[in-house]
Design brief:
about 525 residues; alpha/beta; five-stranded mixed β-sheet; 14 helices
Length: about 525
């Protein structure tokens, strides 16, 4: 007969078992169940009396029973040497025949009688989540592979487009040159006919001669514009920059445009600081101004006004040409800079020009490292703005020595970026995967990292997150290059800059300059 203390301890032990959050079974040396708590009853659907004396394998599906008997026999040989938590993952069989995933931790109760306590946990939900994660990872890997394939196809297509564009440019330049010779003859002979040096012309003949001359001049203007555009697109247009007075350049353009303005009674005024000097290609700057002025004259009504102004800002000079003309609809502010695009008729109701003037102007401004835009409303005039960067030659200063890590799985893309860097005297490190990139970044601590997003294995997204999460690499500027445009997400994860492929050399170098200024390496 147990004493009161033993009874109290026994009751307290049973109470503790019954309030435990996990099912608990005690099994003797022969594998028979000798104890079960309430959670075990709930999990398996059997009562304690029904479980008592039964082999533990009755709670396992048939396919696991043999393996479990072997596992249990090994455990019972030297229980003291076994770890307290065995962590054997199985499936449990309920009374109603259904199964659930479980995790079993075994703890010896008594070395003398070989009893073992089984702490069981239902991990069905965890298993389901793990399966979903595995499925998602598989889908992500497949999607990454698909995107990598698309990336390669896009790069090949970009190369084809670039080659086609070069061929187009060369063709236009060749044809334009061939057309100029007969055009000069047409213009020259029409001028001779108009002078009547070979004999008099009647009024109709004079009118026809004038039409020939004007048509030939218009065609020559178009050919000259195509040649200029072809040179710019092919990268053959070199800027010859020098310091000169901005006011004198504007005055020269105004003197050539004033006769056209006077015909319509348009007033011209300039608000350029006399002391303002600018470093640019003088001829090309005058071409930019002439195109803007001639457009303003075309689209300004008689008696209107055209004004040119300049503003000196911290890092650039801004020049604007404003008119009181017919204005441009808001939806056309971008398209007017496209080639062969004319969005409005002149005040005479006819379309004039080649449709290339503003396209060439835009490229000339960008060639100087500037930007051009328009502010306008229909019926309220227009004001065109363009900028020229301050400093020598309007160019960015040379890149200071730096070490740049290029993380890119595509070998050709990696080689191209490295060639860009080496041409500027920059040292490059390379990595063909996200994991390799993380290791090189930690070991070498580069000044800047260029990271592709679409890579097999560890994606660029995960690599970006890991780089920003590690104290060793958190301060390194990271420039993302990718065929997908996901700037918002990349910046939220800590990207310093984001460039959409294909990336031009100067664009990449500019991004490195900015990144070095922002970095805290």
């Amino acid at each position: 007969m147990p004493n009161l203390t033993e009874v109290n301890l026994d009751e307290r032990f049973r109470n503790l078992l019954d309030i435990a959050p996990d099912p608990i079974l005690e099994v003797d040396a022969e594998g028979r169940i000798v104890l079960a708590n309430k959670e075990a009853e709930k999990l398996f659907g059997w009562t304690r009396d029904e479980l008592a004396g039964q082999p533990i394998e009755m709670l396992l599906p048939e396919r696991f029973r043999t393996r479990h008997v072997i596992h249990r026999s090994h455990y019972s040989v030297r229980p003291k040497t076994r770890p307290m938590g065995t962590g054997l993952e199985l499936f449990a069989l309920r009374k109603d025949g259904t199964e659930c995933a479980i995790d079993i931790n075994l703890s010896p109760v008594s070395a003398a009688n070989g009893r073992v306590m089984c702490i069981i946990r239902d991990v069905s939900e965890r298993k389901h989540i793990e399966e979903q994660i595995q499925l998602l990872n598989q889908n992500l890997e497949r999607r990454t592979e698909e995107l990598a394939t698309v990336n390669q196809q896009l790069e090949l297509r970009n190369l084809e487009v670039e080659r086609a564009n070069v061929l187009k440019t060369e063709f236009l330049a060749s044809v334009s040159h061939e057309l100029r010779t007969p055009l000069h003859a047409i213009i020259g002979f029409s001028e001779l006919l108009a002078e009547e040096s070979a004999g008099g012309l009647n009024p109709k003949q004079k009118r026809f001669t004038s039409h020939i001359y004007q048509g030939a001049q218009h065609l020559l203007e178009l050919i000259n514009d195509i040649l200029d555009l072809s040179k710019i697109e092919a990268g053959h247009l070199e800027l010859r920059q020098e310091w000169f007075s901005a006011a004198s350049a504007v005055a020269e353009v105004l003197s050539s445009i004033r006769p056209l303005a006077n015909q319509k009674g348009i007033a011209l005024s300039a608000g350029i600081q006399p002391e303002l000097s600018i470093f640019a290609d003088r001829i090309r700057l005058k071409e930019i101004l002439f195109n803007l002025f001639s457009n303003a004259v075309k689209f300004t009504r008689e008696g209107g006004r055209i004004t040119v102004r300049s503003t000196v800002l911290p890092d650039h000079i801004r020049i604007s040409v404003a008119d009181t003309g017919i204005g441009i609809a808001a939806g056309e502010h971008e398209s007017i800079f496209q080639t062969f695009r004319q969005v409005a008729s002149t005040t005479k109701g006819v379309r004039e020009g080649t449709g290339l003037g503003l396209a060439i102007t835009k490229r000339l401004v960008e060639q100087h490292g500037g930007h051009i835009w328009v502010e306008s409303e229909l019926g309220a005039g227009s004001e065109f703005f363009f900028t020229i960067p301050q400093g020598a030659a309007g160019e960015e200063p040379p890149l200071e020595p730096a070490v740049v890590l290029v993380v890119e799985d595509d070998e050709s893309s990696r080689e191209l970026v490295v060639s860009y860097l080496e041409s500027e005297g920059l040292k490059s490190l390379t990595a063909g995967s996200g994991d390799e990139g993380l290791r090189v970044a930690r070991d070498s601590h580069p000044d800047v990292i260029i990271l592709d997003l679409l890579m097999p294995g560890r994606s660029g997204w995960e690599t970006l997150y890991k780089l920003r999460s590690s104290p060793a690499t958190a301060g390194i500027p990271i420039i993302i290059t990718s065929v997908i445009d996901e700037k918002k997400m990349a910046f939220s994860l800590g990207a310093t800059d984001y460039l959409v492929k294909p990336v031009a050399k100067e664009t990449l170098l500019d991004a490195i300059r900015r990144a070095k200024r922002l970095g805290v390496t």
